[in-house]
Design goal:
The protein has 625 residues and is of the alpha+beta class. It has 23 helices and 13 strands.
Length: 625
């Protein structure tokens, strides 16, 4: 069945600082050391005042194309309801990847990381970004993907460097206008989007109403190209692969990007004709368009588009047109993503508004259209994790009172360092990042509960094991460990009740295996608990009970607020936030019993470090069994 599809977040990456028109030749270089004669003419028509390049003034590449794409994707994911780990489809678009082979999606996936997933590379010029968006939309609509990431990235400045033009045979002859024209038209940048079958819970989304893409290359000569030269009799001569050598192909100029500017006027009428056809089909009602986003390479083409539309009875008020061509430059297939990103992320759109997108491409005479509707957040905005409770509400850091004892003072310093590092790393755990951004879902909560339950079941067991390893001269401490185990041995039942109350089954949570992080944590705890007098486990208690006293309540309140739950559905977290401070009193008591030596203090710190890392691993590997 076909599902609704929503763009739930958008991101961008623009390399380096904005470059003005006066700086362009400093970055691209002067061909044969002479200033361009065409630059001022082209810039006066295209209306671009600044752009970004991924090369420096020495024409050295500062970012790879896949790096532009990866940074744009991360920017989108920071606003997204999903994490990189949850991506199940990656679709990419570009004019030219960093490598000839393999596909650009594979290049991006390798640099991005994340899970194994389906990928698709859409290769073209300006239209390839819309083709990528349509590919992902169709897969999400069909139920083949639930969390798709789309990116469109362009790094064209490498093709525009003066050195590439100086390699062409011809001595001091001026560059043909069709070759030089594009040096002052194109720029670098990347945009990305996340697509899902449900809207963003706390931010506006864009519902994809429909998309329409048509190639007219069957009736038109290709207008922008790299890899060959026009043949005198029409069409193309030998391509770079047909040349006797790459050196001869370079000397012939086949690697210079070229634009047949005589064909651009035809593209205007072709695009508007397709618009009229969509009006006649009832897919577009001009009066309903709140934002008109048309990708054009130069402001020079806007007026012919407006004039032809008006001649056909279509009048779209000036205030409804939106473009950032003047500040972003012509970023090819990324342009439409960068327009949408600015429009949405700067808060210009309102729920219910309709956004019409049109991307014509002169390379293959392809015209792409899309209609998007701004959709309100799936739920009311909720507090982020950091704002649910003040720092005053957090429990005390579980540290022993030093009382002037140098060994304890050193232990306090080292445990403080361990905790600060642990707490900062917690903020990087994908699931907790979602909780912090206010995009936590019921599915996330069930996943957290089902994974925590397996570790909590083991908690009282390793404490009991540790008690059995304590020798007779420390019976008071053994009693303390046993009492602790008795108090916590049924905590897992709260997790089971929570899981069932938010849509899970008792059978699923009780039969679920430990994830690989929980396996490692459990094995470590039982290993340490099996040693004679394993008092270094006080370091593990410092981490685990510290989580309860300082963090658990925050988690519980944030989950309750974001998911609209009752207090009883997060009782486990609230209970530990209220009671783990009492448990920590036993840590103080143990260290005050006379067992602390410099050697034991060092072991406590080491055990705290290992436990902290394995606890993080448990949270990082949710569901990985």
């Amino acid at each position: 069945m076909s599902r609704d599809v929503f763009i739930t977040s958008l991101g961008k990456f623009l390399p380096g600082e904005p470059i003005s028109n006066e700086q362009m030749e400093t970055y691209l270089g002067k061909v044969r050391g002479r200033p361009s004669r065409a630059r001022s003419r082209v810039l006066s028509q295209n209306g671009i005042t600044q752009r970004h390049y991924a090369i420096d003034t020495e024409q050295r590449t500062r970012f790879r194309n896949w790096e532009l794409a990866v940074r744009a994707i991360h920017d989108a994911l920071e606003r997204s309801p999903i994490t990189l780990k949850e991506m199940d489809l990656l679709v990419t678009a570009t004019t030219q990847g960093d490598l000839v082979l393999p596909g650009f999606a594979s290049q991006v996936h390798h640099a991005l990381g994340g899970p194994a997933c389906e990928v698709a590379s859409l290769h073209g010029i300006c239209s390839s970004g819309m083709q990528a968006l349509r590919n992902a939309t169709l897969q999400v609509a069909a139920g083949e993907a639930d969390r798709a990431v789309v990116c469109a990235s362009e790094l064209v400045s490498r093709l525009l460097k003066a050195s590439h033009y100086e390699e062409v045979a011809g001595g001091a002859n001026a560059l043909p206008f069709e070759a030089e024209f594009l040096r002052w038209m194109l720029s670098d940048g990347a945009g990305a989007a996340v697509l899902q079958p449900t809207p963003h819970p706390t931010r506006p989304s864009l519902k994809v109403e429909w998309m329409d893409i048509r190639s007219h290359a069957n009736r038109h000569e290709l207008g922008m190209y790299v890899g060959a030269n026009r043949a005198p009799e029409g069409g193309f001569g030998d391509t770079w692969l047909d040349a006797p050598s790459v050196t001869e192909a370079t000397a012939a100029g086949v690697f210079n990007i070229k634009q047949d500017i005589r064909r651009l006027e035809s593209l205007v009428s072709l695009g508007v004709d397709g618009f009229f056809a969509l009006v006649d089909q009832g897919r577009i009602r001009p009066a309903d368009i709140d934002w008109c986003l048309i990708h054009y390479s130069s402001h020079y083409f806007k007026q012919p588009i407006v004039k032809l539309l008006e001649q056909g009875g279509v009048r779209i008020p000036e205030e409804r047109w939106f473009t950032n061509l003047s500040t972003r430059g012509n970023t090819g297939c990324a342009s439409i993503f960068l327009m949408l990103e600015e429009l949405v992320n700067e808060g210009r759109v309102r729920p219910g508004e309709r956004i019409f997108c049109m991307v014509p491409e002169s390379g293959g005479f392809i015209v792409c259209y899309a209609m998007l509707t701004v959709v309100a957040p799936g739920r009311a905005a909720v507090p982020e994790l950091a704002s649910v409770t003040s720092t005053e509400d957090a429990g005390p850091l579980p540290l022993p009172a030093a009382g002037g004892d140098p060994v304890k003072e050193k232990l306090v310093r080292e445990l403080t360092h361990v905790w600060v590092d642990f707490e900062s790393r917690l903020q990087q755990v994908p699931l907790l990042q979602k909780l912090n951004r206010g995009v936590f879902t019921h599915e996330d909560y069930r996943e957290l509960l089902i994974n925590l339950r397996q570790q909590v079941v083991e908690g009282s067991r390793w404490i009991a094991r540790a008690a059995s390893s304590i020798t007779a001269e420390h019976l008071a401490l053994r009693s303390s460990f046993i009492r602790h185990a008795r108090e916590e041995h049924r905590d897992y039942e709260m997790l089971e009740r929570h899981y069932v109350s938010v849509g899970g089954t008792h059978e699923d949570i009780t039969r679920a295996p430990k994830n690989i992080g929980s396996e490692a944590l459990s094995a470590w705890m039982f290993h340490r608990a099996s040693q004679e007098n394993p008092f270094d486990l006080l370091g593990a208690m410092f981490i685990i009970e510290g989580l309860g006293s300082r963090v658990a309540r925050k988690w519980g309140l944030a989950i309750r607020e974001q998911l609209g739950l009752e207090e009883e559905q997060v009782r486990f977290f609230l209970y530990h936030g209220e009671n783990d401070g009492t448990h920590l009193d036993r840590l103080e008591g143990a260290l005050g019993s006379g067992i602390l030596t410099p050697e034991l203090a060092a072991r406590i710190v080491k055990t705290a470090k290992v436990t902290a890392r394995l606890y993080l691993l448990q949270l990082e590997e949710l569901g990985n069994v």
